[in-house]
Amino acid sequence: MARPLRIEYPGAFYHVTSRGNEQKDVFKSQRDRGKFLEYLESATERYGAVVHVYCLMNNEQSLSFAPGDAGRQSVSDHAAHKWSIHDIFQHQAKKVRASVSGKV
Q: Which residue in 27, 32, 53, 83 has the fewest CB atoms around it within 10 Å?
């Protein structure tokens, strides 16, 4: 059964987390963290979002942000999609897997 759609409010703040599949690390180095932050920055610029707080742990990322006009899903999907592509190409010699499973 699908999860019900989230209700979005203008001017609201949202907390989004994503964890690595099978509790595996998502960020393997400081370079990985930097790349994810680049993708997050491009999402905020593209959609007019404002990130208030973020935390990047080895196997999880957590964000608190105001999404702007485009909506919460656009911002989190943009960063997660770009990160997944980066992760697959960076580790293509290893088992190809989805890099994150998100809870929004």
A: 53
- CA 59 – CA 44 distance, rounded (Å): 22
Average pLDDT, the chain: 75
Host H or E run for residue 64: strand 60-66
Confidence of residue 96 (pLDDT cuts 50, 70, 90): very low
Q: What is the pTM of this model?
A: 0.69
14-90 folds as Alpha-Beta Plaits (3.30.70)
pLDDT at 100 over 80: no
Domain locations in the chain as residue ranges? 14-90
CA–CA gap between residue 85 and residue 97 (Å, rounded): 10
* Direct distance between the N- and C-terminal alpha carbons of the chain, in angstroms, rounded to an integer: 17
What is the rounded distance in angstroms from the CA atom of residue 37 to the CA atom of residue 98? 19
